[in-house]
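Q: I'm a student working through a structural biology exercise. My instructor gave each of us a protein and asked us to get a predicted structure, then write a short paragraph describing it. Mine is Pyridoxal-dependent decarboxylase domain-containing protein 1. I'm not confident about reading structure output yet, so if you can add a plain explanation after the tokens, that would really help. Here is the sequence I was given:
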Amino acid sequence: MDASLEKKIADPTLAEMGKNLKEAMKMLEDSQRRTEEENGKKLLSGDIPGPLQGRIQNIGEQGHISLLGHSLGAYISTLDKEKLRKLTTRILSDTTLWLCRIFRYENGCAYFHEEEREGLAKICRLAIHSRYEDFVVDGFNVLYNRKPVLYLSAAARPGLGQYLCNQLGLPFPCLCRVPCNTVFGSQHQMDVAFLEKLIKDDIERGKLPLLLVANAGTAAVGHTDKIGRLKELCEQYGIWLHVEGVNLATLALGYVSSSVLAATKCDSMTLTPGPWLGLPAVPAVTLYKHDDPALTLVSGLTSNKPADKLRALPLWLSLQYLGLDGIVERIKHACQLSQRLQESLKKVNHIKILVEDELSSPVVVFRFFQELPGSDPGLNAIPAPSAAASAVGRERHSCDALNRWLGEQLKQLVPMSGLTVMDLEVEGTCVRFSPLMTAAVLGTRGEDVDQLVACVQSKLPVLTCTLQLREEFKQEVEATAGLLYVDDPNWPGIGVVRYEHANDDKSSLKLDPEGEKIHAGLLKKLNELESDLTFKMGPEYKSMKSCIYIGMASDDIDISELVETIAVTAREIEEDSRLLENMTEVVRKGIQEAQVQLQKANEERLLEEGVLRQIPVVGSVLNWFSPVQASQKGRTFNLTAGSLESTEHTYVYKVQGSGVTPPQTPTGTRTKQRLPGQKPFKRSLRGSDAISETSSVGHIEDLEKMEQSSGGQEASEANSHERHPEAPAPPEAEPPGALQDGAQGLQDDRPQVEEPESLR
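A: Happy to help. First, here is the predicted structure for Pyridoxal-dependent decarboxylase domain-containing protein 1. I'll explain a few features afterward.
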């Protein structure tokens, strides 16, 4: 009688709500059909003034329905208390029934919560009240006499155990972390045999095994525990079994793997339909089975407040809008994206896929690796050329850095894929593709998966080439004087190098201003070469000293030329800096010496001319009767020699002295002849089978002939400049003596010309 009355009262309210929803949907459809007059694009967020204008993502109609549920809940809360109670009860019961049918959880109850871990904390409270009958009266004393134990997998979400202890007020020793398999099965599955041993040990110590958290899709790689075997173990020892994970979404599909299907027999499970279906602001749901409503009320799983029941309203509206077919289609589409990426990556070399079940896994985790010759690529994930532990560790870090770079590049190139980069304890750095959590929100399509595979294939040559050149670069740097190889495990490029100048304190880890100045100039010089390599400057991995970071190599690079260029350029910068410092000191001393000599010259002039000539009127009369024949004396400063010289020769012969020829700038020991259009550091002849030894030798001889011909032309031009431009060429019949006299005359009549720079 009460149920029929409640239905009669609630039905008019629901009918009115449905009418209003239809009007709201019509308004939403009309707003989406409108187009902007300027660019013709669809209005995704409406005309929202302020900082939110143009920044709200495309949430779709189902997203608008979910957001509308929050506003509608605020209006519903203003109804009469009796109508509000009946309406909220109907919404809660309908939503619970739909979720239990969709995800195959029969006769279950639902708790809706905003925080994803909150449902598990409430389940733990329910388990404590169920196992400790006097807990309401005695409280902590009951737990102290027999401590509860919560079992979590080593592959569980980080921070889950700490969150439960903080919410329940339990000490951390109440947590028991169960290791994963090490010999048989997946390395991300809970070791059932070891768990049983832990349970027996806890019972012998007087503890109470309370709750076990299993994973149907671990947070890292999406692997599923052996839930069927764990359920048998929990029934044997009276332990509450809770299951969570992304793979629970596949329960809505027609085909479900046996390991995930076993989760329908557990005591409770947590679902996150918001990310799965692309619904914003939708609460998470914890489904559970329990017969005592009093304990569920004490635990906080049920509430008599209408506001708590209205949490289900956004999900209630969204489920009605999508329908069963729409829900299944979204989850099925995400699983198909995973299968598509998995099948495509199988055909790509140097890519290892970490997947548990190739038929139904909705998560794909992959990483780049280099196969060792003569080994099984499925067992070899570390590109180590030797079996030494240090070499293996170094190559492991190098491969992790490359995978981190690969993941970041793929995220930028294909943002619709929703990739994440993560670090695993055994495998190292990997890239994860989980469309169940991202595809519905980002709108990932099959074309995005194909683009992702194409980007992976385009980056593989860069990764393999860089990995092959790292060891060669290290050996070249260690064999070059003045350079120090810096081992930075987080840098994905060819390597890191630091130039050690003369005043470098190798034991200090502080900032070196002189070294920073040299490296800044070196970075500028390297970037001016316009090579395919990228250079950056930054602090060393373990200190504050500046270093040069060399990026990824997309082609075969001449490492020896690269290292030699870095060493020679850095040495030139250091010598130029020291030359400037020495020149500053020489100029300062020259100025002081010139001041002393000028003062001495003034004193000598005063003694030579006499005191009377210094008097203004008398001096003019004396200078008129007896002028002073004083020679012009001056000083010139020779920067090359660093000394003061007299200018008397300049005034007498009307020509400046040639001085001392400055030394040449030091250059590299080897100068590579490049072909037209060839960029620096390219090794053009390496690995070319089409060029024989004869053609290679002939190519080298051609280069030598080009050098000789260019040198001969420079010498002839220099000889032509030695002759006077106005003097005609001497005839062949003229005697040698006349030629010598003519040359001597030319030498006496014109000033001496400094030799051209090419003849030095």
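A: Here are two points you could use in your paragraph. The mean pLDDT is 77. The first helix runs from residue 2 to 33. It's a good idea to check both against the output above yourself.
Q: Great, thank you!
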